[in-house]
């Protein structure tokens, strides 16, 4: 049920408190730093919303009727499509894969007609047609027709296709990796929880082989660690260091503080709960201060850049208007001589540049000549960049000038040549769900009943969305097994690359090559 909640500060942390008439009070850590909460809140901004909503309502009833509704405040920044709920792993913290024998278990794999219909729904979104798709599951690479699925997405006009995967099939079957790349998959959103086997038992041995497949096929990689306090939060710096050793193919690390699903007592939640500021603080400690707390900005901080491009072009542009507490990010670059990280904030006045963009966007909207105004913006950009501290090979002012004058974000690709994006995205759960965040969500799911549902409604309230919708388009596990002539458990990965690893490596000791590589990056 929907409950009123109080969000308050205590001991420089932000908490949420709500009272259920049946179960009593529930208090939950909402944001680990009140100082960061205040800083991030200055970037609060509403987005364009849904101009062609799938659900027409006169009065906001969030989250009872998602799909997108006319009260939603952000367009689809990234759309997700579940192509299977099968997985070859059984990770203990995962909130979604089919488990045989459980009550209510179902096998969901949309067919090509349904996939095309979902893509048409996404592309029909206005004012910004959906143009960025993440294929997810389960494990998408279990579908033998996954290349055909990607081709359908490309045929329907989606430019950027990313695959959320554990990378095991990329490691074991390079030919399959080549096929999905040729079909149009640009990027792997690669699960990677730590640099030792203890923290990352799911694909510790397979990751190096998956990266090799990506190198050979020209596929870029985003490392995606699920961060769980007391489990792997001590290896965040090591993950970044390992990404640094593989920057030719790894262009980003996107940390995801765990979403706590299921029924858990308060003490258990406190054991595992970690928030964006907590992760950021650990990264500062574990990178020896090379990446500090002050280097991070909330996701909507990039809105002024969108606004000035939009004012100049007089056309709606892609924007990231999510709630300031949802996520954060920064760019870091490697110093060619010292091999240390140089965050963007160390050589660029980000705040001053954002204020310039916002001021000039307002001038254009007020009637000032947009061409003269944009020339003035480009001319002033160099004043915000300390060229002496700027990493060799990077011309930040020129890059921003190209983005502004070409009125597109295509030039952002040049950041990745010598840079690494660090992101943070904390998806909600039933203990901390905040409808103000939900109404601004821009990570959405497309569904076979032709709706577009925000992530933190789809997965946090599966009784209303994920399971209720997908069960309509599913069959039982037994029916699927009879049709395919195989057992569900036959698809589980048996750890073929782990044989002969030895007890020490299996325990995640420092003899791990991955751990060694991460350590070497600091020397």
Automatic annotation (TrEMBL):
<keyword id="KW-0408">Iron</keyword>
<dbReference type="GO" id="GO:0051539">
    <property type="term" value="F:4 iron, 4 sulfur cluster binding"/>
</dbReference>
<keyword id="KW-0949">S-adenosyl-L-methionine</keyword>
<dbReference type="Pfam" id="PF23545">
    <property type="entry name" value="Zn_ribbon_HMPTM"/>
</dbReference>
<dbReference type="InterPro" id="IPR058240">
    <property type="entry name" value="rSAM_sf"/>
</dbReference>
<dbReference type="InterPro" id="IPR007197">
    <property type="entry name" value="rSAM"/>
</dbReference>
<dbReference type="InterPro" id="IPR056488">
    <property type="entry name" value="Zn_ribbon_HMPTM"/>
</dbReference>
<dbReference type="InterPro" id="IPR013785">
    <property type="entry name" value="Aldolase_TIM"/>
</dbReference>
<dbReference type="InterPro" id="IPR034474">
    <property type="entry name" value="Methyltransferase_Class_D"/>
</dbReference>
<keyword id="KW-0479">Metal-binding</keyword>
<protein>
    <submittedName>
        <fullName>Radical SAM protein</fullName>
    </submittedName>
</protein>
<dbReference type="GO" id="GO:0008168">
    <property type="term" value="F:methyltransferase activity"/>
</dbReference>
<keyword id="KW-0411">Iron-sulfur</keyword>
<dbReference type="GO" id="GO:0046872">
    <property type="term" value="F:metal ion binding"/>
</dbReference>
<dbReference type="Pfam" id="PF04055">
    <property type="entry name" value="Radical_SAM"/>
</dbReference>
<dbReference type="InterPro" id="IPR034471">
    <property type="entry name" value="GDGT/MA_synthase"/>
</dbReference>
<feature type="domain" description="Radical SAM core">
    <location>
        <begin position="73"/>
        <end position="298"/>
    </location>
</feature>
